[in-house]
Amino acid sequence: MNRSGYRTRWLGVIAAGLLSLAVGHVGNGAPVVAKPQATPSAPSSSAPSKQMPGFIRDWYGFSKLPYDGAGQTVAIVGTGDYLAAGSDLAVFINSYGTGSMHGLAGNDPCTVTAGPHPCFERVKAPAVSTQYPDLYWSGGTHYHIEAASDVQWAHVVAPGADILFVDAATPTPDDVMGAIDVAVAQGSSVVSISLGWEQTADDAARETHFTNHPGVVFVAASGDNDYGGNQLYPAASPNVLAVGGTTLKMVGTKWAESAWGRFTDTTNHTGPIGSTGGLSRFDAIPAYQQGFHTGTNRGVPDVAYAADWVGFPTYVLGQYYTLGGTSVGAPQWAALVALANQARSGSGQPPLTGVAPFYEAAQTETYTGNYRDIVDGMGACMNQSC
Fold first, then answer.
1. What are the C-alpha distances in Å from 115 to residues 103, 118, 154, 351, 381?
2. Phi and psi (nearest 5°) for 85?
3. How far lies 5's CA from each of 190, 249, 373, 381, 384, in Å?
4. What is the Cα–Cα distance from 276 to 184, expressed in whole angstroms?
5. How far, CA to CA in Å, does 152 sit from each of 88, 170, 307?
6. I need a labelling partner for 297 at 20 to 30 A (CA). Which of 48, 155, 159, 271 fits?
7. For the chain, which residues score pLDDT lower than 70?
8. Comparing C-alpha atoms, which of 275, 303, 274 is closest to residue 289?
9. How far apart are CA 71 and CA 325, in angstroms?
10. Are 104 and 90 contacting, i.e. CB atoms less than 8 angstroms apart?
11. Exposed/middle/buried for 225, CB within 10 Å: 0-12, 13-18, 19+?
12. Distance (Å, rounded) from C-alpha 283 to C-alpha 296?
């Protein structure tokens, strides 16, 4: 969101300042399919990186805040008939000590509407699409890993928030949109989507799923394909907060954060991987981005989060994985919004709506104390100008 394509924030600006996968295929008649934007490691039978939840909470300042997301519902949109989402979350909580929840065992039922809280609830979204691609089932395990990471790491950041996992019938765009509608109808104040497909002109008709929802913020992963001609949808939507990726690494004796992007072939500069970003081919620059970049179209991403294979541990169906990618950032930004909404509620403020408030906060007098520009590294723009 900054002039160089990225901006990441300490939570303080949101709690205080705001109080004032891969690409889907279109050709040859193949259906467009939303794909995960996270890449897992090889599985392990033992819990890795037990210090990671605490490190992330300290690095981004969450551990310094008196908020845990209580009273808020974070919706995670996924797919794959992931029936074990609750039991896997229970194992993750037991392994990493991230705070108990209701709804994880058969003798402790709950709903995000009636409680008791905090509650984990899985709901199956009804099918909307008439397409049911065969490759959906071949990618099922990867969809489970994606959803597990989203659920578990949203809980790390906002352990007091309710989590509603909405399991889309298929990964087709229509069914993903239908799952988003279910999340809103269930009263979620923030909706996280770590699935995406290459934006086309057809996506303009899908904008109605993100508009006219006061008190709701939609968050989506920008993708892991580095700078490209087309951006991924729904992250490219001007009504969705797009989350890019950063690299966390030791510089001397201190951790530092830079834009995530590199070439797999550093000699010929081919095969770029990293946080997807650039300008939408289909959406004009929204009013809230005026002055933040020099292009005439919608810029992606808006914000950023650690993504470069830092190693976010996740438990799925009897195995542990460590993940990287922009998908790990989207649900954690969604949880961050839940913390902000909890703070706003305590001071009589309404919940956040849309993307504009995040840019408005960047223009306040608290900017330099609460924001951190990511200006180093080879990120969304690679060698091109954003």
1. 9, 7, 18, 20, 45
2. -55, -40
3. 24, 20, 10, 7, 11
4. 27
5. 9, 22, 16
6. 271
7. 1-48, 130-140, 226-229, 262-274, 309-310, 368-370, 376-386
8. 303
9. 29
10. yes
11. buried
12. 9
CA distances from 359 to 64, 363, 381 (A): 24, 7, 20
SS3 label, residue 289:
helix
**Tokens for 65?**
């805040």
DSSP assignment letter at 354 = S
CA angle 49, 53, 54 (to 5 degrees): 105
Which residue(s) pair with 248 in the sheet? 257
H/E element, 146:
helix 140-157
pLDDT in tens, 18-51: 444 122 222 233 345 555 555 555 555 556 678 8
Residue in the block written with tokens 């999340």: 183
Angle at 241 between CA 50 and CA 158, to 5 degrees: 35
CA distance 352 to 334: 11
Note the pTM of the prediction, 2 decimals. Answer: 0.86
Q: Which two tokens stand for residue 141?
A: 């395990």
Task: From 82, 79, 38, 35, select the one nearest 323 (Cα to Cα).
Answer: 38
- Virtual CA dihedral for 134, 198, 176, 131, nearest 10 degrees? -30
For residue 105, give the nearest of 90, 127, 115, 119 by alpha carbon.
90
